[in-house]
Amino acid sequence: QLQLVESGGGLVQPGGSLRLSCAASRFTLDSYAIGWFRQAPGNEREGVSCISSSGGSTIYADSVLGRFTISRDNAKNTVFLQMNSLKVEDTAVYYCAAAPDYYCLLHGVVRRWESDYWGQGTQVTVSS
Q: What percentage of residues in the chain have a pLDDT greater than 90?
């Protein structure tokens, strides 16, 4: 069973930074695109960013462009989301998902991926 585990969430002040990690167990990530999504209370899950299996292509939602950076280290079987200049509206549970490359390359993160492979989420709270 493919398992993804997110970590790195926490409480940070506006303008601060966090780095989230998405690690895989029982399989290797290097053949999957990875997407980051987030869900705030009362809202639908929305896409944040995705990265192709090779790391050569990345896509960002307009709301995080220029502030967040997605990267991957296939040797460590981990994908990262560096979040800078955090805003209160970035507060949400952040999830990673694994899917074939075309999910990211063709669809980006416009809508939630129809994937069976999701992590359990990590809470990010931006508050003063």
A: 88
